[in-house]
Amino acid sequence: MPYTKRRRLVRTAVAIALGATTLAACGSESGDGDTESGPASLTYWTWTPGMDKVVDLWNKGPGKKDRITVTVKKQASGDTLVTKILTAHKAGKAPDLVQAEYQALPTLVSNDALADISENVGGVERKFADGVWQQTTLGTDAVYAVPQDIGPMMFYYREDLFKEYGLTVPTTWDEFAETARKLKKAAPGKDLTTFSANDSGLFAGLAQQAGAKWWTTSGDQWKVSINDAASQKVAKFWGGLVKEGAIDNQPMYTPAWNKALNTGKQIAWVSAVWAPGTLTTAAPDTKGKWAMAPLPQWSASDNSTGSWGGSSTAVTTDSEHRAAAAKFAAWLNTDSEALNALAKESGIYPAATNAQTSGAFLKPPAYFANQADFYTKAADIAETTAPSAWGPNVNVAYTTFKDAFGAAAKSKSDFGAALDEMQADTVADMKKQGFEVAE
């Protein structure tokens, strides 16, 4: 959608949702006086551990040369931070820079809290996969953030147990289902994996891989398609496996789930590139017994993956030094020294493609020491990240997912009905906030 139309949409939404009588400057406007000729002191809100050490590199190096100083203010993550940013912005006191999850960007943009920094980060997009960069543009010519870390989805499996039960690593979802059934027949007490309703990002990433576009825009209206054909396909697939008992229906991240992974009761996990860290804690006794492969595809000719997690660095419309802030955001997420420090101090998987097979990623994670090409394979998978389509009330959709899919998984009932409930609740909330929603 043309940026001018998006801005009209955004202005209408902000005026109604916040009751604003006046609006801050549009993100496409400059608002950055003499930044390049004078010093600038910037504040950065972030939850990433060790970020202060990474920022020190800037303050002692490029930042010192450019007379741009950045101060880190540690924050909570998720919806808590989004609410704090919006509250500060309403008072005209948001920080210069904020860390924002990709799914939070439309909410912040629709409230006019993020600046368009496209004029300040020209050429940076070449450092990122197309599907990753798209998440910071929202499908427009504007740029609302610079990607920081990503969570391309992958398939993890117990290599030793796959061999023991004569299982082949599935390359399609049909093969995945057959693998689950074959294991259940050979070892009734074991499950290939579980469908978990306590992390909405997993299902969102699977729907993304299938081609879902949950939020799109047409003219001045939003279109919500959470129960589109692609998402229904994913829901029917997983719901069917749960109903027939081919996989487990218990939530992740519980003591029972940890035990199932650690004892080999569950022998695979659909997850993302950050899984080694989770497995290290959840299944310490199985270190070196797992392997990683690309996510199964809906068709043998497909080659795409979904994204589960990830965040970006954005500049707010309240910043008086937008060009300086954008310069720092670009450095933080593309400079080799900065990216190596982020990997070492913060444990992130970088969005920048040049960093995914260098520095800290030359060797596999310790938990996967048996798979020397772990990060080489991960980088190839990351390049296939499918485009996403987030909207201004992801939190509402995610909350309904946990409730509706949680109930459906527990009772082994219709996942399609749960998806319809997500759709209805999301649309109702958007209309309540004053967004124009196409029927």
UniProtKB/TrEMBL annotation:
The keyword Zinc-finger is annotated on this UniProt entry: no
Signal peptide extent: 1-24
Keywords: Cell membrane, Lipoprotein, Membrane, Palmitate, Signal
Species of provenance: Streptomyces qaidamensis
Name of the featured protein: Sugar ABC transporter substrate-binding protein
InterPro entries xref list: Bact_solute-bd_prot1, SBP
Alphabetized PROSITE patterns for the sequence: PROKAR_LIPOPROTEIN (PS51257)
Domain of life: Bacteria
